[in-house]
Amino acid sequence: MKNYFSDANAFANENYSNYNGWDSLDGGGYDYADDYNYASEGVGEEAKASLPYILNISNSTTDDVSSVVFLGTNGNLLASNFGNPAAITITMDNGTVTYTEFLQSITNQPFKVGLMYLQSANTSQPFRQLVITYKEPNGRQVTLPVSPALDPMQQQGGVTIVRHKFPVNAFTSITTTILASATLTVRFYPSEELDIARGLAGKSVGKNYTKPNLSQFQFPSKGNLVG
Predict the structure, then answer these.
(1) pTM strictly above 0.85
(2) How does pLDDT run across 139-169, given as a tens digit for each residue?
(3) Cα torsion angle, 75, 57, 132, 179, sign
(4) Closest alpha carbon to 118 in 186, 71, 64, 179
(5) Residue 206's pLDDT band (cuts 50, 70, 90)
(6) Measuring CA to CA, which residue among 95, 102, 96 is closest to residue 73?
């Protein structure tokens, strides 16, 4: 029992799974050093379980396509096919919300990703490296490779959870390789979202979320549990 709680505490403080340590952007900008991801709640308001933004990224050809980019509102919203070759199609799986609308919303409602859930019928696709790029208006840029891995206790292929926190604003983009005839489904689970309109109702513009329940293998946490 002692070892269980020791391991659980270490897991709760581990914010940097699947990549080498990134504490903050040279001490400025966003701070990623906060412990216990998803543990905070809004004052006077119970935090709700995080619901995902779901992207389907498809390759219609029988060849792998490298440097496929998604997000990146500032550079890709008005670009032809959102900055990708014709073989790539990106759609949203959130009701009637389109990918164009989603990119537009990021400008006014940036959010912080708490974790990503990657899924594909091609069992190799979710484990292709993701490269997250974050820029600032002053020209500073940070590029971080994230290499998803199969959990040793996981019995199925084709899915993986990436526990990696990063901000998504109009400058944030992600590139990867989409394998031949494959579709990658990316679910972004936000831990926090900024909505200026909430201030008009006397609420904090920052809206926090608790962890989604994605796995039967669980560790204790303040909010909902996640494996």
Answers:
(1) no
(2) 899 999 999 998 877 778 899 999 889 999 9
(3) negative
(4) 186
(5) confident
(6) 102
Q: Is 38 left (phi over 0), alpha (psi -120 to 50) or beta?
A: left
* 160, two tokens: 């993986």
Residue 140 identity: R
pLDDT at 112: 93
Buried b (16+ CB within 10 A) or exposed e, 136-152: eeeeeebeeebebeeee
Binning pLDDT at 50, 70 and 90, where does residue 45 land? low
Give me the residue spans of the domains in the chain: 2-37+51-194
3-state secondary structure the chain: CHHHHHHHHHHHHCCECCCCCCCEECCEEEECCCCCCCCCCCCCCCCEECCCEEEEEEECCCCCEEEEEEECHHHHCCCHHHHCCCCEEEEECCCCCCHHHHHHHHHHCCEEEEEEEEECCCCCHHHCCEEEEEECCCCCEEEEEECCCCCCCCCCCCEEEECECEEECCCCEEEEEECCCCEEEEEEEEEEEECHHHHHHCCCCEEEEECCCCCCCCCCCCCCCCC
Residue whose token pair is 């006077």: 44
- Give, rounded to a whole angstrom, the gap between the first and last alpha carbons of the chain: 18
Nearest to 14 by CA among 36, 46, 42, 40: 36
Q: How many residues does the chain have?
A: 227
Q: Convert 14-67 into a string of H (helix), E (strand) and C (coil).
A: CCECCCCCCCEECCEEEECCCCCCCCCCCCCCCCEECCCEEEEEEECCCCCEEE
